[in-house]
Amino acid sequence: MLKSRRNEMLVAAVLVAPFVFIYGWMFVYPTLQMVQLSFTNAPLIGPGKWIGLDNYKRLFGDRVFGTAVWNTTYFVLLTVIPGTAVALGIALMVSRLNGWFQSLILSAFFLPFVLPITVVYLIWDWLLNLQFGIAQYIIGPIMGKPMNVWRTIPWFMPGVAIITIWWTNGFSILLFLAGLRNIPKELYEAAALDGATRWQVFTRITWPLIWPVTVLCLTIQLILQLKIFDQVYLFSLGGRTAATMVMVQYIFEQAFQKNSGGYAATVAVALFVIVIAFSVFQYQVLRIRGAR
Amino acid sequence: MTAMADTSLTSVERKRSRPLNIGAILLGALTVICAAIWFFPVFWALSTSLKTDDEAVRRGIGLLPEAPTLDGYLYVIRNSDLPFWYLNSTITSVAVTVIAVFMAACAGYAISQLRFPGRTLLWWTILASFMVPVQALIVNHFIIMASVKLLNTHLGIILPMLITPVTVIVYKQFFDSLPREFREAAVMDGANEFQLLFRVFLPMNWGITTALAIITFIGAWNSFLWPFLAAQNEKMMTVTVGITAVQDTFGVAYARLMAGAVLAGLPVALAYIIFQRRVTQAITLSAGIKG
Amino acid sequence: MPHVELKNVTKRYGNVEVINGLSLAVEEGSFTALLGPSGCGKSTLLRMIAGLEEITQGQCFIAGTEVTDVPPAQRGAAMVFQNYALYPHLTVRQNIAFSLSIAGASREVQNKRVGEVARMLRLDELLDRRPAQLSGGQRQRVAIGRALVREPKVFLFDEPLSNLDAMLRVQMRLELAKLHQSLKTTMIYVTHDQVEAMTLADRIVVLDKGIISQVGTPLELYNKPANKFVAAFIGSPAMNFFKAEIAGRDGEAYSLNLPGGRTAKIVSRGGTVPAAASVDVGVRPEHLKLGPAGAANSHFDGKVSIVEQLGNSTLLYVDTPAGQLIVEGEGNLKIAVGDTVGLSLDPAASHLFGTDEKVI
């Protein structure tokens, strides 16, 4: 039996080897290096001096970092709850349909999710084009005159948030649909026999039973949107980026535009800590859900 | 009495027994309108891409092009590096898909079915990488790739994108869910671990592998931040990065710009339309919901 | 020489001992059933013979060769699983040929062997279907075919019929019996269903909590149970038990003071018990004779509380001083609930069990 145990280990070693190699090189090593780098004043490429906690001290006094944290938080607030609510609404509507018609309508809602962000950016930049954009036919009458959404700071984040909801909502819609499908039909039939109205059915059956999926969507979105970069970067191209800065963008700017790898790593560590904190929270929530 | 009987029907039964229910029709119409609004930006991009550049900037709302033309597409293909980008995107996305899925299947199998030292540690590393923001590692990925001279190469673009922990997690859970008799029957039939994985477990449900492959492909094709950093050379860019990088070279030519956008999104949109069910499956699996 | 032999095997999961120092020998060509309630260790025993469970201590031999540390596929044993475990992505042909294909057999050899097996099991028409397109009985036959194609020295069956409905189970039972008659290969069959064991096996091993309770032919177990566990486990409806006191001995026979004050003489199997000891008396429902209440030769009077008409027989649940006794009578018995009847024991077919539950 000893021989077969050793054989099992050998097989396991062969099977996990590529994975361990890639994860070691592309995940574990960079993570450790990032922490180490955050204590130095290294440029992007090249050696730096150990400067202890200086980068972290600087981080707490950094106004732009503060803006980035605030903008990221603001963006999360603008997308997570409204996006999940919209997704639930759409899922409730779509779940009433059947067959090919349902998959057609669902495709219309889901398709944006599979598009690359740059395509989303090009499409919406064209829609909202100051001179020729078709959306200006709506914005014009409301605001009194056509508006360049991306150069109007108060509208920047809400604008990106709306587009993000449009882009990523398909994911939550699918989860809600799966959740709605998992609610046993008998419950609705029993409620109907008890004479429940449509609203009562929703508040007494659908909502409590779909709540776990709602929590799941909220936490997935929360962690996803904390890592916002692409949209904000693309829409702010050529604008005053300092005002609309988000956290990943600040890492990018410090490393690749200001050539300070050490400080960029410090910002990255901060993002790391924040996301892990939320992820642990999510993990706990999911575990509670799983335990029930 | 009839009214009471009516409210006591479920929505399913109501649809069957009274097909002409006003509320249901209104809701249906609302759904269609919402879907149309939601889809409009994509439609508008398609429509614009088939117009001439003059028609695209004309006043007024022309929903459909007057004389559909492929000029925008031809211009983009001839006057940009788009063919190169397509090639780069295809190479990197296919490579990421094949390597990541293969790696995940092997690792997921080992973690699920075999006992070996370090198994728990490996599993925790995977869960950790699932929680961690990979975007935060861009600086170090860049430093590593620069040090091994892989910037502006396909391999350099591919390597950091291979971190797809969800794939391993889904595979492990799938292998966990299989009745142990399959394994035992194959062992009795003389299969070794590799034959078990590649001739029994994986073929038993190609659906999962297909689903994971498609979602990985879409993800790889769509990634922006890392390819954007790793490929500075225009000839090495992926489509996703390329179409915005050269925005200015097209000038105020929105039909061309939209043609570029459509071309960039086409492969993933097609992948979704063809494999709709698999994409849905992959998403519900990765979120841990039984669909 | 036994064909399959376990010597002093022990199985432990951590500190939990499932099987303790068990020895068992199975003759070549026999059909042996491992019978016992769930959790008695019968499946573990079978899986140890197959090589799917490690043997913590002891040895296992198949056809004279020690196989304790031999990988499952090389032991010459084939197994049929409870849920069949057919590979869902392969056709019937590929399922049956899988082991040959793993062993690297040529296409011609595979087709030839699959053809032979398919003919024997009447699967010819189904070879290109997938398991999902088959009925339960057909799946079962494919699972047997998969085992058959390997030409094993011993067949192992792990509750192969328990997923089938009652009708099919009877039918498959006959097919298995026929298969054994024509192949004459050693078969070891795990089941918790005593009817299956009684009808199929030529030898039954009754297991209880990881130890062998009794080994014997079906009729030996039925007529001469070695202990109270076997007596209670085999036979349906189950054997009646009640307490009685030894009054005296007359050769092999003991006279007993029965509950309710009467006495009976019961033939023992040669065991001895001290006088005045309390024993368990076991008697099968068909060995209790009905008579009028208060008759001179009856041992108990009782009131009928339930009547079950089965057509070919009638089951009466009779409340007596010895507790409720089940009596099997003729099919057209004219007895109603509430009637009082007299019951007499068949002295030659009653069993005595001591305080250690062993037969006396």
From TrEMBL, chain A:
<keyword id="KW-0812">Transmembrane</keyword>
<keyword id="KW-1003">Cell membrane</keyword>
<keyword id="KW-1133">Transmembrane helix</keyword>
<feature type="transmembrane region" description="Helical">
    <location>
        <begin position="104"/>
        <end position="124"/>
    </location>
</feature>
<feature type="transmembrane region" description="Helical">
    <location>
        <begin position="201"/>
        <end position="226"/>
    </location>
</feature>
<feature type="transmembrane region" description="Helical">
    <location>
        <begin position="155"/>
        <end position="180"/>
    </location>
</feature>
<feature type="transmembrane region" description="Helical">
    <location>
        <begin position="264"/>
        <end position="286"/>
    </location>
</feature>
<feature type="domain" description="ABC transmembrane type-1">
    <location>
        <begin position="69"/>
        <end position="282"/>
    </location>
</feature>
<keyword id="KW-0472">Membrane</keyword>
<feature type="transmembrane region" description="Helical">
    <location>
        <begin position="73"/>
        <end position="92"/>
    </location>
</feature>
<dbReference type="InterPro" id="IPR035906">
    <property type="entry name" value="MetI-like_sf"/>
</dbReference>
<dbReference type="InterPro" id="IPR051393">
    <property type="entry name" value="ABC_transporter_permease"/>
</dbReference>
<dbReference type="GO" id="GO:0005886">
    <property type="term" value="C:plasma membrane"/>
</dbReference>
<comment type="similarity">
    <text>Belongs to the binding-protein-dependent transport system permease family.</text>
</comment>
<protein>
    <submittedName>
        <fullName>Sugar ABC transporter permease</fullName>
    </submittedName>
</protein>
TrEMBL record, chain B:
<dbReference type="InterPro" id="IPR035906">
    <property type="entry name" value="MetI-like_sf"/>
</dbReference>
<feature type="domain" description="ABC transmembrane type-1">
    <location>
        <begin position="86"/>
        <end position="275"/>
    </location>
</feature>
<dbReference type="Pfam" id="PF00528">
    <property type="entry name" value="BPD_transp_1"/>
</dbReference>
<feature type="transmembrane region" description="Helical">
    <location>
        <begin position="121"/>
        <end position="143"/>
    </location>
</feature>
<feature type="transmembrane region" description="Helical">
    <location>
        <begin position="253"/>
        <end position="275"/>
    </location>
</feature>
<protein>
    <submittedName>
        <fullName>Carbohydrate ABC transporter permease</fullName>
    </submittedName>
</protein>
<feature type="transmembrane region" description="Helical">
    <location>
        <begin position="84"/>
        <end position="109"/>
    </location>
</feature>
<keyword id="KW-0472">Membrane</keyword>
<feature type="transmembrane region" description="Helical">
    <location>
        <begin position="20"/>
        <end position="44"/>
    </location>
</feature>
<keyword id="KW-1003">Cell membrane</keyword>
<comment type="similarity">
    <text>Belongs to the binding-protein-dependent transport system permease family.</text>
</comment>
<keyword id="KW-0812">Transmembrane</keyword>
<dbReference type="GO" id="GO:0055085">
    <property type="term" value="P:transmembrane transport"/>
</dbReference>
<keyword id="KW-0813">Transport</keyword>
<feature type="transmembrane region" description="Helical">
    <location>
        <begin position="155"/>
        <end position="175"/>
    </location>
</feature>
From TrEMBL, chain C:
<feature type="domain" description="ABC transporter">
    <location>
        <begin position="4"/>
        <end position="234"/>
    </location>
</feature>
<dbReference type="InterPro" id="IPR012340">
    <property type="entry name" value="NA-bd_OB-fold"/>
</dbReference>
<dbReference type="InterPro" id="IPR015855">
    <property type="entry name" value="ABC_transpr_MalK-like"/>
</dbReference>
<comment type="similarity">
    <text>Belongs to the ABC transporter superfamily.</text>
</comment>
<dbReference type="GO" id="GO:0055052">
    <property type="term" value="C:ATP-binding cassette (ABC) transporter complex, substrate-binding subunit-containing"/>
</dbReference>
<dbReference type="GO" id="GO:0015423">
    <property type="term" value="F:ABC-type maltose transporter activity"/>
</dbReference>
<dbReference type="Pfam" id="PF00005">
    <property type="entry name" value="ABC_tran"/>
</dbReference>
<dbReference type="InterPro" id="IPR008995">
    <property type="entry name" value="Mo/tungstate-bd_C_term_dom"/>
</dbReference>
<dbReference type="InterPro" id="IPR003593">
    <property type="entry name" value="AAA+_ATPase"/>
</dbReference>
<protein>
    <submittedName>
        <fullName>ABC transporter ATP-binding protein</fullName>
    </submittedName>
</protein>
<dbReference type="Pfam" id="PF08402">
    <property type="entry name" value="TOBE_2"/>
</dbReference>
<dbReference type="InterPro" id="IPR013611">
    <property type="entry name" value="Transp-assoc_OB_typ2"/>
</dbReference>
<dbReference type="InterPro" id="IPR017871">
    <property type="entry name" value="ABC_transporter-like_CS"/>
</dbReference>
<keyword id="KW-0813">Transport</keyword>
<dbReference type="InterPro" id="IPR047641">
    <property type="entry name" value="ABC_transpr_MalK/UgpC-like"/>
</dbReference>
